[in-house]
Records
---
Amino acid sequence: MRKITKLLYRILFSEQEDNIKKQKNFPKNSILLAEDNPIIVRSIKSLLAQRGYHVTAVEDGSKTLNYLKSYTYDWVLLDLVLPEIEGIDVVKDYRCWEKQTNRPYLPVFGLTAYPFKEMKHVCKEAGMAYLFEKPFKLDDLKLIEDFLKNRGN
């Protein structure tokens, strides 16, 4: 199973990696998707692309943090359970870096298959705007769009 997952990732991300290295700023509606399940990545990318979003997907917390610090996105959809660095720790680290470097607030939205009540509070304290339950749906995207509209983004 691990070999199949790695193969799917190579197929999904190899072209993306080359394109990302060529550009520093992405077009409007650029989203960073941090998710380690390639099937979920494909599903969310499809949903977002239909709505006009440019999606960059990464599969682990370390890459997520690197991409957040290296490129500009309009918002982030972040799985809480990622290899290398957990989603909560990614957000905490990023928020600290964001303050140190005087970067504008970047909306981060959590994504989990295990939506415990306490988890919403933990995510909020870490610096996430919302926590969504998998599977990510059009209604979730509409909540994000409303949140961004109300913030003036």
---
Amino acid sequence: MKLNLGSGKNPKGDWINIDNDPNAKYDILRDITKGLPFADNSMDEVYASHIMEHLTKDEFCFVMQEIWRVCIDKAKITIIVPHWQYEGAYDIDHKPVITKRWFKIFEKGYSCVQDTHKFHQGCYFKINEIIEDVDGSIKHAEPQMYVYLEVEK
């Protein structure tokens, strides 16, 4: 199964589309900060475009843990957020500004001054690629960061 978090007005066909906005196009109306309503190891792929920047740091970590829980080993994850150098990343309804380091904390063996376990809680992802589209040239859109992860169990 494939899961689209924050489907908004652009649901993906053949995917389970979740949004917490009653005006969105969704299959399931749900606040993902309350958890994902799926069994462990039930998803093959997750797509989250422009939703993670609307979460607090704690909500971000919880949702990453929930994605890990519902995904099978080696499931593919795509997350798109505004690029931190773009002024839109600092919109009033964006809680954190997300950088590459937010995802590195979820990599096995990543080491930094902080105690990263409090963030990942043993839920690991392999970073396959992070593309920083600083000038918006990839999709002729606003500058974004494309993050391609793989679940590690």
